[in-house]
Amino acid sequence: MAKVKQDIQEPDRLVFDLKQDIDYRNKTWKGLSVELIEEISRKKQEPDWMREIRLRSLEIYKSKPMPQWGPDLSDLDVNEIITYIDPDFKKQNSWDEVPEEIKEIFTALGIPKAEQESLAGVGAQFDSEIVYQNMRNELAKQGVIYMDMETALQEYEDIIREHFMKLVPPEDHKFAALHGAVWSGGSFVYVPEGVQVDIPLQSYFRLNAPGAGQFEHTLIIVEKGASLQFIEGCSAPKYSVNNLHAGCVELYVREGARLRYSTIENWSKNMYNLNTKRVLVEKDGLIEWISGSFGSRVSMLYPMSILKGEGARAEFTGISFASKNQTLDTGAKILHAAPGTTSTINSRSIAKDGGKVFYRGLVKVLPEAVNSKASVSCESLMLDSQSRSDTVPVIDIRNDQVDFGHEAKVGRISEEAIYYLMSRGISEEEARALIVRGFVEPIAKEFPLEYAVELNNLLKIELEGTIG
Amino acid sequence: MGENLLEIKNLRATVEGKEILKGINLKVNKGEIHVIMGPNGAGKSTLANVIMGDPTYEITGGEITFQGESINELEVDKRARKGIFLSFQYPEEIPGISVENFLRTAKAAVTGEEQGIFQFRKLLLEKMAMLDMKEEYAGRYLNHGFSGGEKKKNEILQMAMLEPVLAILDETDSGLDIDAIRIVTEGIRKIASEENSFLIITHYNRILDYLDADYVHILMYGRIVKSGDISLAKEIEESGFIALEEVRNG
To answer: CB–CB of B80 and A422 under 8 A?
Structure first.
């Protein structure tokens, strides 16, 4: 896939922290109830089957306990979360028509500029609804569809019905069920057979309201021999109350198709980011996950790749950086379900100022997946003695014709290395930054070029003030 | 005799409460090459690291004066910026940072001037050629997966690039074959001038065949027990350090 130089301006945290004072009175619904769900479904003029998915999901949500493994979620009270915000505005396909106060935020995030210069299409979600969506004409002419999920549900009901929450059913876990009940917004992308989308599409999710949840649904289908790059960006201003993000991403990579799905997540540090992502890859298809986790108070994120067709491949490249009061529990799951499938997981985690990073992953190779290859490399680096890190890579191989490699390392930043660099005139702060940059370098170079600058900036922001 | 560069007076230093340096006195003037020899565990590396400012060691007495100022309390990076350089006996491996990027950062830090990419690269390739290093080293991660000899050469490359006023070489010659020693010492000779000084710590006097040392000091039991000219090194070669025991006792 072509790498396109892209300029996503994310200069500093100040931009993310911009908040718009929007009057949310009489426009929000807190918590969960059958009435709320009926109301959302009615407002969105959904078909009956969708309303039924929502109601069934609500039942499942109520019946499932909070997950007892992983990070502490006891501070998260879903009944206190605003699950739906009724927008005053309609989706636009010209920035000029987007309400001024919302446009300001996306302009500060550099989205319209990046769209002009280097993206094939942009979707922008503000709280519960997509406020802007546009795609280049030539792609539309080739049959590429890129629209918000609500419109897709009206215009392509059959496709949505066939795929919606089939990879991630509401029964999967409590937050998948919550998502099924109150989902709103998100993007639908369809790339027809043989069409190559060389310039990335981007969806940007912005949660502005305090104490709110964002539950967008992303559904992407890349047909036989087609290719797509999709970028997802997330941010929110900081509030003193908890916010919740329980999005869901379902991806279908058909025979010989390729999809690169990139995320740089920079939620504010009061966010519970409990996101579910899954892909089904058919014969000779390729999924590339690129994942950068910097924000949120708690993240639980383990994108899963199901390698269903012979020769299907998955590559996961991830960086997590946890600072004070953050717990990032991230990783990747791969299911090898056909012969000759290949997977690579490459993860680097960093913790500082008492932050916690955990790598949690699973590679499962089924008996029929002979002649498969899997490799897992997960390393973590703690920058001080208050920070914590661990890796839990679970490997479950059910046949003996598998080529498997595994490397896991947990370590603290070496004082000897800092001394060595300082003996060359480099300050302590810069020495630490160099070591961290070196630590993520093998991963960072796998990141698309357009992310390299952004990643560097984020690392720089995160490392500032590392010296107490 | 050149003007004084380094003066160490009655220096004492401990590591984890154990005293290693027990009163070192040493004077190095500009333009001089000093050699420090001594048996294992004598405190040679400790002396080198204490001059550099390794926070692992604690100075418990005495004073280190560099260019007329006490540097006892000065941080490592500030000493480096004053022109002190240590070629490490066991250089650290820093994965993910290329030799070139590292050196450009270091050069900018030491000189206080931004280093233009192209100009810097030209200088780097020049110095690498001088040390008979292949160009590809510039792109390799710093010391990562380097052989012992490659690491030592890399230290000398750093010295050549940073142009220190005082270069301390901690057993840079050990682990090197004769060819490598010749290249390294040639490098030192090319850098040496009336304006800088060398403190060369060595176990063997092989390196002395290629360098014109002005002084040889014998360090034993945390003290300099004898100083002299190059003939002292020959003496050690013939009779070993044991013969100096009586010097210490007498």
So the answer is: yes
Strand B141-142 with B215-220, pairing: unpaired
Number of H helices, E strands in chain B: 8, 12
Q: Is B162 on the interface with A (CB under 8 A)?
A: yes
Q: Which amino acid is at B88?
A: F
Q: Is residue A443 within 8 Å of residue A348, measured between CB atoms?
A: yes
Q: Judge whether B77 is closer than 8 Å to chain A, CB to CB.
A: yes
Most confident of A126-130, B37-41, B155-159: B155-159
Predicted local distance difference test score (pLDDT) of residue A13: 53
Distance from CA of B242 to the nearest CA of A (A): 33
Cβ contacts of B52 on chain A, cutoff 8 Å: 423
pLDDT band at A20 (very low <50, low <70, confident <90, very high): low
Closest CA to A109 of A229, A299, A236: A236
Q: What are phi and psi of A217, to 5 degrees?
A: -120, 125
Q: Tell me if A434 and B94 make a contact (CB, 8 A cut-off).
A: yes
Q: How far is CA B206 from CA A328, A435, B37, B177, B233, in A?
A: 55, 36, 12, 11, 10
User: Lowest mean pLDDT: which of A128-142, A144-158, A270-284?
Assistant: A128-142
Rounded-to-integer distance, Cα B87 and Cα B79, Å: 14
Backbone φ and ψ of B199, nearest 5°: -120, 105
- Tally the domains of chain B: 1
Q: Check if A435 contacts B (Cβ < 8 Å).
A: yes
What is the per-residue DSSP string for A351-379? E-TT-EEEEEEEEEE-TT-TTEEEEEEEE
Cβ A183 vs Cβ A190: under 8 Å: no
Does residue B151 lie in a domain region? Answer: no
- Residue A196 DSSP one-character state: B
Q: Which residue has the higher pLDDT, A312 or A407?
A: A312
Which range is least confidently modeled, A118-122, B28-32, B177-181?
Answer: A118-122
pLDDT band for A2, please (50, 70, 90 cuts). Answer: very low
**Banded pLDDT at A88 (limits 50, 70, 90):** low
The domain that holds B177 is classified in CATH as 3.40.50.300
ipTM of this complex prediction, to 2 decimal places: 0.95
In angstroms, what CA-CA distances link A15 with A11, A198, A272, B104?
Answer: 7, 29, 20, 32
- Determine which of A409, A413, A420, A456 to mutate to test the interface with B (most B C-beta atoms within 10 Å): A420
Q: Which domain holds residue B61?
A: 4-94+166-249
pLDDT score of B28 = 97
In this prediction, residue A344 carries a pLDDT of 97
Q: Is residue B238 part of a domain?
A: yes
pLDDT computed for residue B180 by the predictor: 83
Percent of chain A with pLDDT over 90: 57
Residue B113 lies in a domain: no
Check if B146 contacts A (Cβ < 8 Å): no
pLDDT for A418: 96
Asked if the structure places residue B153 within a domain, the reply is no
pLDDT surpassing 70 at residue B246: no
Q: In A, which residues are within 8 Å of B142 by CB distance?
A: 438
Residue showing tokens 């350090």: B241
Long-range contacts of A457-461 (CB under 8 A, 24+ apart): A457/A10, A457/A11, A457/A12, A458/A10, A458/A264, A458/A266, A458/A292, A458/A294, A458/A321, A459/A321, A459/A433, A460/A433, A461/A12, A461/A13
Q: Which pairs count as long-range contacts for A430-435, CB under 8 Å and 24+ apart, including other chains? A: A430/B105, A430/B109, A431/B77, A432/A383, A432/A463, A432/A466, A432/A467, A433/A459, A433/A460, A433/A463, A433/A466, A434/B94, A434/B97, A434/B102, A434/B105, A435/A381, A435/B94, A435/B97
C-alpha A43/C-alpha A394 separation (Å) is: 44
The CA distance from A359 to A36, in Å, is 37
Q: Which residue has the tokens 């929000």?
A: A28
